[in-house]
């Protein structure tokens, strides 16, 4: 019988968790009740808070005496992060459901993030209608707005919690059976201005027997790809759109953090890298542009996205950083440089075309990269020309075949 783990503070949310527990069991599934509150639960849980606190290197008696909510949350969250992956490895539950406000959401989502991709995870939260990146990270947690505070059962909360129960039960009982035949897996990056290139490369790779997963290079996409590579299931990386690093350097809104470009290099995964869309720094609405960018060449991608043309200094900084990342490579890699333009806007005849900026970038990369495992290849084509896309795809296949030998 399938089991849903219910994790939360049963001292303050006992009524709500009992309501959810009964709903799940009435649908024919089991529950595993894990208490992570500081005081006594409103009912007898399957795993008490003492066990959680010990794994967090604390004790309930100490936490009750200290009366420091922040410290208590830290200890209990740490305990859950040790406990929950272990319980899942022992196959003691099949999915996770939790309820909470700011505290409960911060308490439970860290351990949810440690569970493998595909394990159903629902967080019913008062925080679900805002920026949930701090809670979800690069995981597949489903954040469900609680609408009202998780504070009793009423005409609104009963409906929301019932929907959450039916959602998690449905996820568990109706597993994905349409998984394709297993093929070597390639992770690729794409942005709107590199779409023709990446889609043509994807088509070629699929014809050659590979499965290609594309990540939108929007900050979150890059983080998710790095996480997937670190999980060990990726066989090759087609990282043609490294634009997230120009945002990291210049303060754009689509940065992926300082670990971008680490995973493939440090894990020895064959990769083909390029500089797609490194010519653009992305911001929100035009009014959100920092003062220093307002007199630069600007392109309105859509009403919500404003793009600033990167300059020579920013491209040099980009080249230094990407070069440093590629110097970490533990397996053969290739850097392909599209000599005729690095994005849809960066082409001859466009006011956005920047051959001087591109050259500064190319020269910097060639100066910085000193890892003999990284081959630098000039391709006399625009990034979105078929010749470039096919060259990148063929090179990646060659590197992956080399890895097998």
TrEMBL record:
Superkingdom of origin organism: Bacteria
CDD domains: Tm-1-like
Coiled coil: none
One of the Pfam families matching this protein, by short name: UPF0261_C
Residue span(s) of domain UPF0261: 2-176, 183-400
Full protein name: Tm-1-like ATP-binding domain-containing protein
């Amino acid at each position: 019988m399938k089991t849903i783990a219910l994790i939360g503070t049963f001292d303050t949310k006992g009524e709500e968790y009992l309501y959810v527990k009964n709903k799940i069991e009435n649908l024919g599934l089991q529950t595993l009740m894990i208490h992570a509150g500081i005081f006594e639960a409103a009912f007898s849980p399957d795993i008490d808070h003492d066990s959680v606190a010990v794994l967090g290197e604390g004790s309930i008696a100490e936490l009750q005496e200290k009366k420091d909510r922040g410290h208590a949350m830290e200890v209990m969250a740490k305990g859950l992060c040790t406990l929950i992956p272990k319980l899942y490895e022992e196959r003691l539950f099949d999915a996770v459901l939790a309820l909470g406000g700011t505290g409960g959401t911060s308490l439970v989502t860290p351990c949810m993030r440690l569970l493998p991709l595909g394990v159903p995870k629902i967080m019913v939260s008062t925080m679900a209608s805002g920026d949930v990146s701090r809670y979800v990270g690069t995981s597949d947690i489903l954040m469900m707005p609680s609408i009202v505070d998780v504070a009793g059962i009423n005409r609104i909360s009963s409906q929301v919690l019932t929907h959450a129960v039916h959602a998690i039960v449905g996820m568990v009982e109706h597993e994905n059976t349409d998984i394709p035949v297993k093929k070597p897996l390639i992770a690729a990056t794409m942005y709107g201005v590199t779409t023709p290139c990446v889609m043509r490369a994807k088509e070629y790779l699929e014809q050659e027997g590979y499965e290609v997963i594309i990540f939108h290079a929007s900050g979150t996409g890059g983080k998710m790809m790095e996480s997937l590579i670190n999980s060990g299931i990726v066989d090759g990386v087609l990282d043609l759109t490294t634009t997230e690093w120009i945002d990291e350097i210049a303060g754009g809104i689509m940065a992926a953090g300082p670990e971008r470009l680490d995973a493939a290099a440090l894990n020895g995964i064959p990769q083909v890298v390029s500089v797609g869309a490194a010519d653009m720094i992305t911001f929100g609405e035009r009014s959100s542009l920092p003062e220093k960018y307002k007199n630069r060449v600007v392109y309105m991608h859509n009403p919500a996205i404003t793009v600033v043309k990167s300059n020579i200094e920013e491209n040099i900084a980009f080249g230094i950083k990407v070069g440093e990342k590629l110097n970490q490579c533990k397996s053969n890699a290739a850097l392909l440089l599209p000599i005729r333009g690095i994005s849809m806007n960066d082409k001859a005849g466009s006011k956005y075309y920047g051959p001087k900026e591109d050259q500064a970038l190319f020269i910097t990369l060639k100066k910085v990269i000193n890892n003999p495992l990284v081959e630098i290849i000039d391709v006399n084509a625009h990034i979105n020309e078929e010749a470039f896309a096919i060259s990148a795809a063929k090179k990646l296949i060659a590197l992956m075949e080399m890895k097998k030998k």
